[in-house]
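User: Please predict the structure of the protein below. I'd like the answer in structure-token form so I can feed it into my own downstream comparison script.

Assistant: Understood. Taking the following sequence of 322 residues as input:
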Amino acid sequence: LKPTDSLSSLLQASPVEPAEQRVDIGDVQERGEISTDSDEDYSEISGSELDEEITWIEWFCHLKGNEFFVEVDEDYIQDDFNLTGLSTQVPYYEYALNMILDFEDQDDQLPEDQQPLVETAAQMLYGLIHARFILTSRGMAAMLDKFNAYVYGVCPLSSCENQNQAVLPIGQSDILRQSAAKVYCPACREIYFPRSTRLECLDGAYFGTSFAHLFFLTYQHMQPTILPQPFVPKLYGFKIHKSVKENLKKQKEATQRKIMNWEATESGTRSAGAAAEILADEAALATFWARSAAPRTCVLVLARDRRRARAYISCPVVGYAS
């Protein structure tokens, strides 16, 4: 399947479903790359467009799940300066670039079994080019339209969601296969996992680490002026005083220091009697946190006397970690 052919001629010439001639979605999604689902992935195309030839870029951006991309200008791709360094990151670079630009080299053709590899390489290359293009004025203008249309969703934070605050895609690395795409909220200035599973399947390098911040520096009027209020924990309507947390922290640190000193003096050998003496030096009701063998399970131990403290400490399941 070649994007240079018209859709009407392709539909008349071959009864094979278009998705069968594309990269297998399972393999692509396992690598965290761009996904192409099935024949229902195609967006709605008017009847007049069926009789016209579409470019590879138009075909690619009309796939379901690729609406998060903007169409990169071909003159931008044809400028070698804009592609500096990409040839070492993408396999089959020359073939992938020719596929994106709809260039057909009849003298240098790959075997049919390698065409899916070229197809995947073209998708990766376009994503990296896309990350550079959206940093230009034309790319930002195209992303502004998608931002205003809430293509990337709204912030999941409760206070931001109430204000219907739109978000932008962002990557945590500019290198392929390091992290999936996230979304950045300009109001709370945090990044989140996107609600759209299709956006989460895209590589974060396709949007880069700098775009979202440069976007709001360019369009400063889109930056929210009212910041969300942080959540305040309360008990029965009353705020919890900060001194409570500070005192609990100091108690934990003191208990930890005593335990470390005891372990150092005993050369790593545990003694239930010595540990009970340490706890007996505390108040009559010594409270400390012990972490059980099960992950994320905490047990509150009330050591009312030395005998009970010794019983808990000698238990092989409970440790001392605060």
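That's the full token string. DSSP finds 14 helices and seven strands in the chain.
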